[in-house]
Amino acid sequence: MFRSVLARRWLRTGPQRPGEQHRHGARGITGATCAAVAAGIAFTTAGLAGAAAPATATTRSLAPPAGAAITSPASYRVLSAAATQTPAGTWKKLPAAPITKAPVTMVSVWTGREMIIHGIGSRGITFAYRPAARTWVRLADGPQPATVNSADVAVWTGSRMLVVGLTSGSYDPATNTWRKIARPGVSLGAAVTGWTGRQFLAWGGTCCEDTSRDGMTYNPATNTWRKLPAAPLQPRASASGAWTGKELVVAGGGNFFSHKTFRDAAAYNPSTGTWRKLPPMPRALTRGPALWDGKEILFLSSSSSARGLAYNPARNSWRLLPAMPLPRFGFAAVWTGHRVLVWGGLAGSNPTWAPPAHGEAYNPAANQWTALPASPLHGRAFPSAVWTGHQMIVWGGHIPQATTDIVFTDGAAYAP
């Protein structure tokens, strides 16, 4: 079905088209996908070698037997690199989640108490992990999507989980209830998004390999959408960006039909309702995670051949990041307040993609990457991830294959 169709496209095109990889998977921070409701995707860990295949790893046809290598079309080996220093921190596997079948798509938020995951399968499904008690709970199911030409993006408002796009619902943990919200009228697949504290901003959402320059803002108080003024950017897909606390920064992207990539960038200020042009990026990047660290936006590369970038709004300048020791795509990334933690994804090229053996941590103050300890989970792409203030929690994900994907319904927590 849909997950397998995308897997065949990934296997055919490979990471030469990184925007496509991310457009069809939900990011941990928080992600999106161009989805058909009837069948499959999810949206970053490592550690495949020597581990028995878990009961929570399944395919659409048959789960691999315990201890079996994950194959198709070739054996999935584990890529490794020399660590720059001894990995610090510990992993702990999560208890079993209250579901046995992975959602087609999923998004997640951290509320300050629990990680809420909302997914879509044959229906909307919502569940939460509470790390203080190490327990999972099933929550009220969300609205059933009414469209397939969009994606879900989730934000935590401080009291509610907004799931905009495909689901278009607002979840209140205090009452364990959902209510429907207005739909944006445009796709949010691979859109650059941000939460201002009062409004949800989105720019450049696409579906099915098209391009866009549309921007929208949603006001939960009035349950209304409004179109943003035109940005000084050409239509594109798979741009990256983040909310800085003042502006939504949008940069890079590409047009896959014309094989063009972009280096230009712009920032939207909702207080003035205006855009401003930014200096061009030192090199083009398409659709990697972007995180605001309080000083810079860190644009992480999802290409095996490109280094990431950092944009400093105060200086209005860019700098190159050091290369990630184990480049990858389809990974999750969270900001801890001091470091970026990266987990999961696939590395290499089609058809010999492989999960990296471990995650990575980037310290902006030292401008250095270090290895994370190997996790207790099988490697995978597109898990969901959140930072709790004390640990990174990762859950779910899948490995795309030519016919049937391997999907996971397990997770783990990493404490630095």
Structure overview:
The protein has a single domain (2-64, 71-77, 85-415), classed as Neuraminidase, CATH 2.120.10. With 416 residues, it is mainly beta. A hairpin with a 3-residue loop joins β6 and β7 (124-130). 4% of the residues lie in helices and 33% in strands.
Quick recap of the structure?
Helices cover 4% and strands 33% of the residues.
CATH domain fold name: Neuraminidase
The major pleated sheet works out as: 4 strands, antiparallel
Percent of residues in beta strands: 25-35%
CATH architecture: 6 Propeller
SSE topology:
Blueprint lengths: L1 H12 L4 H6 E2 L6 E2 L23 E3 L30 E4 L11 E6 L4 E6 L3 E7 L4 E4 L13 E5 L4 E5 L3 E4 L4 E4 L11 E4 L4 E4 L11 E5 L4 E4 L12 E4 L4 E4 L2 E2 L4 E2 L3 E5 L4 E5 L11 E3 L4 E3 L9 E4 L4 E4 L11 E4 L4 E4 L16 E4 L4 E4 L12 E4 L4 E4 L2 E2 L6 E3 L2 E5 L1
Antiparallel strand pairs: 1-2, 3-34, 4-35, 5-6, 6-7, 7-8, 9-10, 10-11, 11-12, 13-14, 14-15, 15-16, 17-18, 18-21, 19-20, 21-22, 23-24, 24-25, 25-26, 27-28, 28-29, 29-30, 31-32, 32-35, 33-34
Observed structural traits:
416 residues; mainly beta; Neuraminidase; four-stranded antiparallel beta sheet; 2 helices; 35 strands; 4% helix; 33% strand; globular; disordered N terminus
